[in-house]
Structures are given as structure tokens and as C-alpha cells.
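Intended use. Records like the one below are meant for learning the mapping from a protein sequence to its folded structure. Do not use them to infer anything beyond what is encoded.
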Amino acid sequence: MCHVLDVKPSSYYNWINRGVSNQQIHRNQCELLVRVAHDETKQRYGCERLHAHLAEQGHHISQYMVRRIKEEYGIVCRRHKRFKVTTNSNHNKFIYPNLLDQKFDTSRPNEAWVSDITYIWTDEGWLYLAGVKDLYTKELVGYAIHKRMTADLVCRALNMAIKNKRPNQRLIVHSDRGSQYCSYDYHKIIKKHKFKGSMSRRGNCFDNAP
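Structure written out for the chain above:
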């Protein structure tokens, strides 16, 4: 075997007598911990989240080591295709005209706000987030979170933005045609503050791209 591998017999016997190094023992332990944590987290966590999970359990493994082990042993995350429809424009409710018309370059704060709903998967199910963004400052001026996607969700987000920024009556408030944004309560807020309601054209996501 030494002849085939071009290794000196003395080197072979030295390796046999030396045994496994402490460094290799530590690495083997880390590999086992990463594999167990990967299964415990249902194979969903990337390197950063897996490192944080191990740290919470009291295991001191560097993020670099976690990444190296995952790459070396082909430990990869499962891909979960989750999709939720957040825009239901199939209704007969009042629709605002598209006043914004993809004019995203504003000259001052509180000239135009855009709003939308997104969703987040958690261990307890779906969580819905409604946000209101100022086109000029790119700031999220208002938001609301709830486990249900209701009209109250977008109303609370808009009311928070109004409370934070106190805009004037010329403000354009843009959204898609989702039923939440076409609700009576949402229109009532816009009318009360004398804002200009604006809505995207049907099926055109570019109208609300920001």
C-alpha cells in the first residue's frame, strides 16, 4: 500500500500511532451537530439561521464552519413554493382612477404614497403585512400586521401613516384594486382627509411597482 501511494512506511506507522487529531474530532462533532440541526429545522434554514439555531442551543460553532460543512457534505435547504393571492380585483366596488400613472419621480415628501399587502410564512401560519411607502423618501410611513387579510389591515396602515406624517390634502394615495382597498372604510379615510385616491389598472403590476 505504501508503494502504491508513494508513502514512506515510517510515515504510515506514525499516522497509525497518532490516531485522530483533536481538530478532526471537533470537526466531526460539528458535522454531526449541523446535520441534526438541519433535520430539526425541517431542512429549511440557510447558514445564518442554522448558525443562530445552534447558538441558541449552546453550541459554539462559527458561521464559517457551518457553511463549510454544508458545502462539503451537500447539505441543502428544501425549496418550498408558497404563494398566496393578495389582490382580488373581481368585484363591483368603487375604483379610483389611476392618477399616479407610473409617475414615480416626486419632488417632495407626502406628494404620493403607494401601498400594498404582502405575506410572510411563520411556524403558526400566514401573517399579512400592509405597508404604505412615501415615493419621495422611500420610507415606510405606515404599516400593520395581522393573521387575516381584511380591510381593517390596510386602514390601520394608512391611519398610522397619517398620524406619523400629517400630510396635506393634495396627497395621492395609490394602491391596486384589491377588495381591501376598495372597501367603504378605506374610502372613508381618504375622503375624510381629502386625499386623492388612485388605483392601478386591472392586471398591471407595473402601475404599483415601487
